[in-house]
Amino acid sequence: MINGKIIKVCGMREAENIQDVESIEGIDMLGFIFYPKSPRYVYELPAYLPIHAQRVGVFVNEDKQTISMYADRFGLNYVQLHGNESPEYCRSLHSTGLKIIKTFSVDRPKDLRKVYDYEKVCDLFLFDTKCEQYGGSGNQFDWSILDMYNGHVPFLLSGGINSYSANALKEFKHPRLAGYDLNSRFELKPGEKDPERIRTFLNELKS
Questions:
Q1: Would you call 128 a catalytic residue per the annotation?
Q2: How many whole angstroms separate alpha carbon 197 and alpha carbon 185?
Q3: Model pTM greater than 0.70?
Q4: Among 126, 77, 117, residue whose Cα is nearest residue 99
Q5: Residue 119: closest CA among 100, 140, 143
Q6: For the segment 115-141, what is each residue's pLDDT rounded down to a tens digit?
Q7: Active-site pick, 90, 128, 181, 194
């Protein structure tokens, strides 16, 4: 954690890169994307999986048996749902003992209305920028919209967080803000993160 906030790095794939990023002080979660249309799709079990960081599997409108298979094979601590999964779907997965992160795309205040239906079936929410495709755009949304969120579930902030976001993140306050999700803006190429860029960013966040 940095300043009491969870640091999640998503879109990991290569063993050495996973190991390098996990070794950075403050990293709490590493995400693996199991959505075949993503350029960061994990198509085989890496030779190394995180030991200290929590493992998060990212899925889009996937059937529950497939998720259970990946959760078992990768030893997932969390399942992150990026599609149109219903509260009932989340509840049934949650009842198997899996922790659930539900992603919501945010563009305007009305996008927050539906999140309250998921309050009792998710452990974390993730607020991301609305875009055409599933899995994020690398762009930032208007964080002030989240002033309207007054639910009880803590959330991760996602969408376009980059090397220059540290000051803005330090200024953004919300009683339910649990942490930050880093992905495409910290990459050398899809699925491979730049450990130095992440380390520098986290040092700025701490200062």
A1: yes
A2: 9
A3: yes
A4: 77
A5: 100
A6: 999 999 999 999 988 665 555 545 678
A7: 128
